[in-house]
User: What shape does this take?
Amino acid sequence: MAHLRTNIRRIRSAIADDPALAIGSSKELVEATCKAILSEGGGAAPDKAEITDLVALVLERLDLLAKNVSSEKKGVQSIKKVLGSLAQAVQGLAELRNLYGSGHGKRPNERGPTARHARLCSGAASTLATFLMETAVQRRVTAES
Assistant: This one.
């Protein structure tokens, strides 16, 4: 968790001065978090997996798929909406990174993202990464007790 918090601080510190870096790093944060969760217990992420595939694998591993939410739970429809929107947020993050992130060379006079775009991406990525990591830790603690 300390590594996650450190990366989130780095991303947030780049928002104002280097929005493209913050956007690219936000996508990388989600990817790294997913790979760390998948590697627990000797597993591994598939080679060259897209970010949406990694998130789907982690959601399945952590039993967070919307279709698996019990219909007996209070607020089940709301829970399903939130869980289902995770995949859409990740897809949007990947697309914004491709358009605006630092990972693709841009022409010198090309307009780039603003701090508000970077803030949107970093907020979504840090929230998702933290939720997934906290869930993985909680599941591990529960399994060990």
